[in-house]
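JOB MANIFEST
job_type = single_chain_structure
chain_count = 1
residues = 76
[input]
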Amino acid sequence: MAKNKPLAKKLRLGKQNRRTRWAPFWIIPKAAGKGKKVHPSRFTRIKRSWRRTKIKRTIKRQEKRKIKRGKIKRKY
């Protein structure tokens, strides 16, 4: 990936990064019960790893061709 990124792309990647965080520590006793030892990642909504699942944020090859020809306006 490029060293200098556009602001919009940076914001999108930052949002995806925040969505993979562990749940707060105070959620565990509330959700699992008092005294239960459970890992905080169990209660996160979205489980994604940079190795396993990719963020599909790239423009497809066909769309690139249409953009070059002027048929579709650029989305981002």
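[summary]
Helices lie at 7-18, 27-32, 61-69.
The longest helix spans residues 7-18.
exit_status = 0
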